[in-house]
Amino acid sequence: MIRWLLLALGGAVLGGIVHLATIMILPRTATQDAYSRLSRTIAVNTVTELPAPAPDAAPMPFMDPAFASAVCRYDLTQGPLKLSVPVSLAYTSVSFYTRYDVAYYAINDRAAGRRVIELELMTVDQHNQMPEDEDITAADRLIVESPTVTGLIAIRALAPEPGLMPLARRAIAAAKCVRAE
Amino acid sequence: MRLLLGSLFALIVAATVGLGATYFALTRGATFGPLTIGSWTAWPKTGTIEANPYAKASTARIGRLPTALGDGVAFTASADDEGRPLDGRCDVVLSGVTPAARFWTLTLYSPDGELVANSVNRFGFSSQEIVRRADGSFEIVVAPRANAGNWLPTGGVERYVLILRLYDTAVGVSTKAGREVPMPAVTVRSCP
Fold it and tell me: Residue A17 needs a FRET pair 20 to 30 A away by CA distance; which of A3, A135, A172, B53 works?
């Protein structure tokens, strides 16, 4: 009896380890996460508009239907990226996600304080390799460091009422995500 | 033989406990650090680089992109103020005010995150579309049949969730207890 209880206890402890391991490994093995889903259909380092979510078809679950959205799936292996997003009339935001769909940075039109949200995206290494003088002259350049080499940028513009959706879509369509020279 | 049986037993226990706990944690949304106000719950940390492993696993499983904290904060309600699950066949009233934010949107989803088909193709409201009372408060009727005023159709589905997203807000960044943050009350008016 004691023997079986000990075995059950040992099993439970091992179970705890199994639990933690599966939780940690899951994001790395998921095939239906947002990045994996989108990377099957969209090209790398370019802005792709996403279709509006509908009851029978949506690019991903829990999308906000009040927004026009686009994504840029990036790969920084070849070097940093430049992103520019013209702001729309209501609310425009740019959110950055790692390869494993973790949001690490977001900026909106008001925080950017300009008509166009402009920033550069690079890895920590690429930022460190930047010549120092360039860093100083670039005081007003907005540099975002990506924790992973690949990831997603979500560009979204709010249509406060359905009639304004074409305007929001137009702003999103003019967004650019290109390799920095 | 006894050793073999014993280790087999221990391994079965380990698999059941481990995988069961993982399944439970990911399907029941049992994750740390919720900000709960009335019927509404948000996980502001999930939209940051400090997201915990449970939040990351849950995000990957669902396949969505969480709302980044610098963008806004998303509050989910899946039950009314008395704790009963939201039923699309009932008339549910959201009333009150929302916390300070530049914009907000309210959207109705199936529990899987799909929009729910309805006759008027309305899936939610934005803060600019809503009809308000003179004091700025509002009332939204979430119901299967058309209602006067702000009507959000449920399509008659059995279960749904409401997500109230606040954009460009200090909620979640600065609020800890959330006592000073007013969220709309969720009450069932009638049920067939």
Answer: A3
